[in-house]
Amino acid sequence: MRADRPAFVAAEQSPDMDVTVEVVGEDTREVVIDDGETYADLVRAIGRSPQEVTVLVDGSPVPEDQPVTADSVTVLRLIKGG
Amino acid sequence: MECDKCDREAVMNAAYSGAHLCEVHFCRSVEKRTRRRIRSDAMLPKDATPEDPERWVIGLSGGKDSVVLTHILDETFGHDPRIEMLALTIHEGIEGYRDKSVEACVELADDLDMRHELVSYDEEFGVRMDDVAESDPLNMAPCAYCGVFRRDLLERYAEEFGADKLLTGHNLDDEAQTALMNFLEGDVKQVAKHFDASLGSFEDRHSQDAFVPRAKPLRDIPEKEVALYAHLKDLPAHITECPHASEAYRGEIQQLLWDLEENHPGTRHSIVAGYEELAKLAADEYRGAGEANLNECENCGAKTSGTRCRKCKLVDAISAV
């Protein structure tokens, strides 16, 4: 189906999205992701495993399998040994 | 995204089960899995009574795992007269790092009104890990010294307090890493020992008279979920890395397991479940075979297969520098 769509429609359906990612205790950076990508994808984009962090939107954790809708997130590294 | 069980917003998803849970149902789920593990491992014997209670020593480091464990144990058994709990914290002599986590331990024990004991390598052995990491007389990783000292103190104090069990905060990731490392080492006798020391249900284990048995109530909970629980409950957990951390191999295995878990959710659960079953078979096969007779260390009285225990030998080497 997708291959049959005119290219410009496909482009409109996956615009890039700028997300501000603050990694607590480290730095803040801008990440460009495609529409429909998830918070887990965002975590991978900053070189972390979704297994070692939690993503907060407005201070609340979000399920990482959900598509990114916030333009600013906080990444909390949770795992650094006992 | 709504919670699977109510109309609140989900705060997490667990790929291995497909669950999406809100804060309330997630925390409830962590507590439920912990209690189920305590039951299925038969950690609380049926013959425990208020007159003759079961005694648990909890290894409380101040990190998220032991803080969550202590919190859940207190919520579950804090008013149960069949159980006496004591939290034991060990200061290794790591400035900054351990000072802060000791504060977290004191705060938690105060909040919970739980008996708390603090011991240090410095007072017990005249040793500080900051100095040991610096001098390193035996050319080993700092963790190699530290592990020997920690085991010695946990064992000694668990015995002194008359503990029936020593409970630690090891989570699913810790257990999957250890299982995989033991497997990759190919040391089946070690796997067999692991079972009786800290792995199986108390109904299946054979007690090792020389040592206080270990139990790990959080071993079904992924590390990330333990951390999220601590965050949501606002527990005073201390999250930084030990400045001397040097377990490079474990780090490699951790990364490998994260990658596997991403592509094959549930891998950690199945590794641990399979390892435990194999460990039981190995224990049945090797139990008692080739075990050295244990003597008392000539210096400190700890159990050892030789004449002087490993801890005393390490202290000797460190003080000879």
Which descriptors would you attach to this protein?
heterodimer, A: 82 residues, alpha+beta, Ubiquitin-like (UB roll), 5 strands, 17% helix, B: 321 residues, alpha/beta, Rossmann fold, two-stranded antiparallel sheet, globular
What does this structure look like?
The complex is a heterodimer of chains A (82) and B (321). Chain A has two helices and five strands, in the order H-E-E-H-E-E-E. Chain A has one domain (15-77): Beta-grasp domain (Ubiquitin-like (UB roll)), CATH 3.10.20. In chain A, a hairpin with a 2-residue loop joins strand 3 (53-57) and strand 4 (60-61). Helix content of chain A is 17%, strand content 34%. Chain A is globular and about 35 Å long. By secondary structure, chain B is of the alpha/beta class. Chain B is globular and about 65 Å long. Chain B folds into two domains: 49-287, HUPs (Rossmann fold), CATH 3.40.50.620; 291-321, no CATH class. In chain B, 38% of the residues are buried. Chain B has helices at 23-40, 64-77, 97-112, 121-125, 129-135, 142-160, 172-185, 188-199, 223-232, 248-263, 267-286, 310-319; strands at 12-14, 19-21, 54-59, 83-91, 115-120, 165-167, 214-215, 295-296, 303-304. In chain B, strands 5-4-3-6-7 form a five-stranded parallel β-sheet, sandwiched between helices. The longest helix of chain B has 20 residues, at 267-286. In chain B, helix 3 (97-112) links the parallel strand 4 (83-91) and strand 5. Classes of the chains: A alpha+beta (82), B alpha/beta (321).
